[in-house]
Every structure is written in C-alpha cells, then in structure tokens.
Amino acid sequence: MRLKKELTLRHIGNEYIIIDPNKGEVDMTKVYSLNETAAWLWQQLKESDFSIEEIATLLLQRYNVDSDRAVADATVLVQKFKEQGLLIDEHEVE
C-alpha cells in the first residue's frame, strides 16, 4: 500500500493535519488531524510502498514497545488511513 501522493502534511501550531487539495482549493471537509507519532510515520512512509510489518518495525526502532503492541498500533493506523481514504492499494492506479 502507499499514501496518496497528492495529500500534504502540515504542522500548524501544535497540530499535524493532512490536507486533501481539490482542484487548487483546499476543501476543509477533507482535512485530517494526526497525532505526533502518526505524523512522524506519515513522513517516513511518504512516497514509498509499505506494509503493516514495516510500520511496526519503524515503531519498534523509535519507541520502547514490544512487537505485539507495534503490530497492533500499525494495524489500527492503517485501518484509520483506509477509512479516511488516505491510502492507495497496490492494485489501484492513481
């Protein structure tokens, strides 16, 4: 899977948001808030294919968590990104 390339991560004040531009204009109904960890992962994953296991590996390298927790957190993150339409499956064409 891959993050949609047209999406932009912005750090505004203490907030991290993903903006989905729409024909040169920002549609404020398509702004997604991320916590610091999700924003860090977004930066690590941008413009590359990845799996849940690769996200878990990044979490294990950065945080003091066990592998079961890292996989569970990675799974939740991917599910949320999918629900919000932020991912492209490897079978989709952009």
Description:
This protein is of the alpha+beta class and 94 residues long. The protein has three helices and five strands, in the order ββββαααβ. It has a three-stranded antiparallel β-sheet with strand order 2-3-4. A two-stranded antiparallel sheet has the order 1-5. A hairpin with a 2-residue loop joins strand 2 and strand 3.
Per-chain topology:
Elements: E1 2-3, E2 8-12, E3 15-22, E4 25-34, H1 36-45, H2 52-62, H3 67-83, E5 87-88
Antiparallel strand pairs: 1-5, 2-3, 3-4
Helix pairs in contact: 2-3
Offer a quick outline of the entry:
The protein has 94 residues and is α+β, with helices and mostly antiparallel strands. The chain has helices at residues 36-45, 52-62, 67-83, and strands spanning 2-3, 8-12, 15-22, 25-34, 87-88.
Order of helices and strands: EEEEHHHE
Count of helical regions: 3
Largest sheet: 3 strands, antiparallel
Measured by DSSP, the beta-strand proportion falls in 25-35%
Measured between the Cα atoms of the first and last residue, the distance is 12 Å
Biggest β-sheet: strands ordered side by side in the sheet = 2-3-4
Could you say which overall geometry the principal axes of the C-alpha atoms support? globular
Helical percentage: 40-55%
